[in-house]
Each structure stands twice: as C-alpha cells, then as structure tokens.
Amino acid sequence: MTKEQTFFVVTICAAFLGGFFLVYPFLQYLAFALLLTYMLHPLSKRLQARIRSRSAVALLMILLILIAVVLPIVYVTTKLVRETRSTVTLLAESPERYVYLERVEALIQRVTGEPADLHVYKNRLVTQIRSFLVKAAPDFLESISEWLLGFFLMLFVMFYSLQAGRGSFERVRALIPLAPNLKDKLIDEIKSVTWAVVYGQVVTALVQGTLGGLGFLIFGVPNAVLWGFVMILLSFLPLIGTPIIWAPAGIFLILSGATARGIGLLLWGGVLVMNVDNFLKPRLISGQSNVHPVVVLLGVLGGLKLFGFIGLVAGPLTLALLIALIRFYEEEYLGIRSEG
C-alpha cells in the first residue's frame, strides 16, 4: 500500500469515526427516517406517476406522516393526562377511596390474620406521586424538546431522501463490494427481512391492542378505545408491553368489588393478550421471510437493549444479514449449497 493509499484509508476512517459520534445522538431518528423512506417508497412512486414534481410528492408524504403520527399522539397524551389527574384526585379526595382501602385491609387481615391500617401509606403514596410529578416535569419537558428536535430532523432527512428517489439507493448499491449476483441476493434479503419484521411488529401490535381494548369493553372498564390504542403502542415493547395497562385495571376491578370481572380481565390479558406476542409475532416474521423464530426473538431483545426502539427492526435485520452473509460465503467460496 502506497503512502497516498495509507493516508486516504486513515483519513476516511478518522472522518467516518468523527461523523459517527456527531450523528450518534440522533441515530435512532436517522434510522427511522431511512426505514420510513424505504417503506413509503412504493406509495411515493405511485404518486410520482401523477404528480411530476418530486418536491411536491415528498412534501405530501411528510404531511401524511404528520397527520398519521402527531394527531393520535396529541389525542392520546391529552386523554392520559386527564385520566392520570382524575386517578390522583380519586386517591386523594374521593370518599370512595376509603371503600377500596377497607377492602384491601380486610383482604390482608384474612390472609395474614393481623389488622392493617393503609390510610397512612395511602397519604404517603399520594404525597410521593405529587412530588414525583413536580420533580419529573422539567425532565419531561426537556425530553419533549429533544423528541421534537429529533422528529424534525427525521422529517427533514425523509423529505430529501424522498426527493432524491431511487438515485440514492442505486448509489449505495454501487458501493457494496460484492459481485452483482450477491448484491442482488443481499438486497433481496434486506427487503424480505425488513418487510417481515415491520409486518410482524405492526400486525402483532394491532391484534394485542384490539384484544386488550375488547377485554376492557367486555369487562366494563371505561375508555376501552383509548386504552386499546395505548396498548397498541406499548405492545412494541416486549419487556413492558400491555400488562402495564390491563393488570392494574383488573386489580382495580377486584378492589372495587367487581371480583368476577377483575379476575376475568386478568385471565383475558394473561391468556390471550400476552400470548399473542409470544406465538403470533415470531410466526408472522418467519412466515414472511426465511428468518428462524429464535433469531427473531434474540434480534428483538438484543436490538432493544443495544439500539433502543429502532432495535425492534435493526436487531433481527442484523442477525438475518449475518446469517445471509455466512450462507453467501459457503455457496460462493466453499461450494456448499444450502438445502431448501
């Protein structure tokens, strides 16, 4: 390697490293921008056939995203703030709070044989909740401002990516140092895995949220549609998920005297809603691609831990690409042909 080549390699590596650290705080938003651009490319292509201006098409796509994302988030956030405020008020001021506490105290006394006085703990809990909300408000506002900045950056990148069209994709394709047939195989693998993961995640979230909302409706929990929508969003997080909504609701029904409905809701959530994520998602993803369910599960959990929310897609995609590259190496360089 000549001095010129060495200088070029060292310089480009240093520039790449510096660029990575510069964009790292916004890496998730950039990844979301590229993913959404790729997912929306077919629709953008259809609009392009009717609207000749690429800038107009890109702007229209951005407006559609704003309508589809911002309006539901504003609605759900407003409703959740109201529900949280009414719950805190119920714990602090409603006469019914004594009925719930007395029932819990009676339950504890039946189990332990010792009398319990929960009013002191209730007052401490309400005070701690209010103190937590006051202290968390500045951090919450700061995170909101960071989210808005990242969301603006995502839309900005999406606009220019949609405006560039297929040209940017072809440029990236040309940089892949593989034979043309391997490039096509690798790109097909990326397409199938990406679509399969997104399809599996979205369909599973819709099914879980719908079942959760239906359970709320059947067992008489108020605002079933709102909580069903919240469970759709939470179902993307496998370590937290929908139990954070339906489990407290079932316990609340039991404490309020509706024991049968509360137990029914807990059984509905534990048997139906939770198992959708365990059985439906891996089969949907592996059914749409050649990715094994074990790879999907490891990819989702590891991706969440390493990359955050975008890891839901990046994790399985990374493992699938690793397996694909190993298979390509076996087929092209070792002469080993995979079965099926």
Q: Main traits of this protein?
A:
85% helix, 2 domains, 340 residues, mainly alpha
Q: How would you describe the overall organization of this protein?
A:
The chain is mainly alpha-helical and 340 residues long. The chain folds into two domains: 25-165, no CATH class; 177-335. The chain has twelve helices and no strands. It has helices at 3-23, 27-50, 54-92, 96-112, 119-164, 166-175, 180-218, 224-234, 243-255, 259-288, 293-307, 311-333.
Rg measurement, Å: 26 Å
Principal-axis shape equals: elongated
Structural class: mainly alpha
Please give the number of β-strands.
0
Largest sheet: none
Helix content: over 70%
Mean pLDDT: 77
Number of helices: 12
Low-confidence stretches: none
Order of helices and strands: HHHHHHHHHHHH
**CA-CA gap between termini:** 43 Å
Strand content: under 5%
Whole-number count of domains: 2
Helix-strand blueprint:
Blueprint: H1 3-23, H2 27-50, H3 54-92, H4 96-112, H5 119-164, H6 166-175, H7 180-218, H8 224-234, H9 243-255, H10 259-288, H11 293-307, H12 311-333
